[in-house]
Amino acid sequence: MGAAQPDWLQNGTGLAPRVAWSFGTDAELIGLEMARESGEVFAVDASGGVYRSGRQGKIEAISRGLHNVRFVRWCDTGEAGLVVAGQNQFSIVDRDLNVVWTSKAPRPILGGAIDAYGHNVAVSLEDGNTVLFSVDKKKLCQFNTIQTLTFLHFVTGKPGLIGAAEHGHFCRHDFEGKELWGEKIWATVGDLSVSGDGKLIFLAEFAHGIQSYDPRGNSLANYVVEGTPSRLSVSFFGSRLVTCTAERYLYWLDADGALLWAAEAPDEVVSLHCDPLGEWFIAGFKGGRVMRLDWESA
After folding, report:
1. If exposure means fewest CB atoms within 10 Å of the residue's CB, which of 46, 75, 97, 262 is most exposed?
2. What is the pLDDT of residue 3?
3. 3-state secondary structure 183-216
4. At the topology level of CATH, where does 16-294 sit?
5. CA distances from 85 to 38, 50, 108 (A)
6. Is 256 exposed, middle or buried (0-12, 13-18, 19+ CB in 10 A)?
7. pLDDT (tens digit, 9 = 90+) per residue, 85-140?
């Protein structure tokens, strides 16, 4: 852990943030999640290490028992997480990184999500089926889409699940599996992020830039940045948006898409997580460095 201020932050455009804290994983970073309510950060590396840090970036728990992890998802309260390992194995893990239970899907898993309170989980399978179930293993529903949903996100308030395929399909389903709406998209998708109230949905659409949508899937605006957006995260109230491009540039934007800060990142960005109020974000880099970049103290 440390708070050294790297040169790359200052060499960009606009008001640069400060490194509030940082820590490193023991091996290449595979996945990174932030619990928006508790402020905890959960990271997994290529050696099978799973880490939980507190609000100040101090490592509070480490597990070495999970191997071949491909991605993780964590609820906002920090109480439960979904860990997908290998082609089709998935586990529910508690905040102390203990495995609560493990199961295997009948087909390879391409996407997953856990709701804000850690009560419900969804996994999307290679054959186009998406399955919703409770964390106590009760199956809620199953539905099929014309394209496999690589990106999934639960909506708070009115229960629902928003999904996007890597190309061609964008939709919302209820907890009974009924499609509330489905849209054709003509872009390849790199990431999906939803505001806390579900009123703003953002897709990183690579060559098409960043596209925002309303809760019914109607297009609202297109944000253009230099490069190819591949990762993004929106604040809880939609006031700030952080994105990175395939060319390794980070951009900090306001609600209208105006550029507030941009810089070339020192390493490939694995994951981004904006804080609820839009004052800072967490960035996880492929080499294993995790940083909180903060404007509150800049």
Report:
1. 46
2. 54
3. ECCCCECCEEEECCCCCCEEEECHHHCEEEECCC
4. Methylamine Dehydrogenase; Chain H (2.130.10)
5. 25, 12, 10
6. exposed
7. 999 999 999 999 999 999 999 999 999 999 999 999 999 999 999 999 999 999 99
The yes-or-no verdict on residue 156 having pLDDT over 90 is no
Angle at 243 between CA 5 and CA 84, to 5 degrees: 100
CB atoms inside a 10 Å sphere around CB 199: 15
Q: Which residue has the higher pLDDT, 202 or 4?
A: 202
Which residues lie closer than 8 Å to 68 by C-beta, 6 or more apart? 48, 85, 86
Q: What is the layout of strands, in order, in the sheet containing 109-114?
A: 109-114, 120-125, 129-134, 139-144
Q: Centre a 10 Å sphere on the Cβ of residue 257 and count the other Cβ atoms it contains.
A: 16
pLDDT at 62 over 60: yes
| Alpha-carbon distance values, 42 to 72, 158, 273, 276, 295 (Å) | 8, 27, 11, 17, 22
Contact 56, 95 (CB under 8 A): no
* Among the listed residues 139, 172, 171, the one whose alpha carbon sits nearest the alpha carbon of residue 157: 172
Confidence of residue 298 (pLDDT cuts 50, 70, 90): low
114 vs 83: CA distance, rounded Å: 10
- Is the distance from CB of 237 to CB of 196 less than 8 angstroms? yes
Q: Quote the CA–CA distance of 13 and 28 in Å, as a whole number.
A: 29
- CA-based nearest residue to 291, from 16, 101, 83, 69: 16
8 Å CB contact between 234 and 215 = no
What percentage of residues in the chain have a pLDDT greater than 70? Answer: 98
User: 146 to each of 113, 166, 180, 286, how far by Cα in Å?
Assistant: 19, 12, 15, 32
